[in-house]
Amino acid sequence: MKSGGYKLSALEIEGTWLTHEAVAEYAVIGVKDETWGESVMDFIGLKGGATLEYSDLKSWCDGKMSSYKIPQAIKIVDTLPRNAMGKVTKPELKKLL
Fold it and tell me: How many distinct structural domains can be found in the chain?
């Protein structure tokens, strides 16, 4: 995805988020943004009993990733949609918006 002229790697962003103690599963997609072209949107499945607010997530990012990689929005989901092989189906994520 591209945001504000930066080419972003979804795998890199996802790998960082999976180190958060509350995150069980995670996927990132680019969503249309009039200013930046695309902005980062995160879908997060939390570990049992965990909670997560956007402001906490944004603070947690400090020093772990560049500011342009931090999501502009998050959506907490019970589970991520997956295909028969277990791979997250990102087109299905866009339907959850």
Answer: 1
d(CA 56, CA 12): 20
| CATH code: domain of residue 59 | 3.30.300.30
Which residue range forms the structural domain that includes residue 76? 2-95
Q: What residues does 41 pair with on adjacent strands?
A: 29, 73
- Burial class of residue 9 (count of CB atoms within 10 Å of its CB; 0-12, 13-18, 19+): exposed
The token duo for 20 is 């958060």
CB 64, CB 18: distance < 8 Å: no
Tens of pLDDT along 45-54?
A: 999 889 989 8
Q: Which residues of the chain have pLDDT under 50?
A: none
Cα dihedral angle (66, 45, 9, 56), rounded to 10 degrees? -10
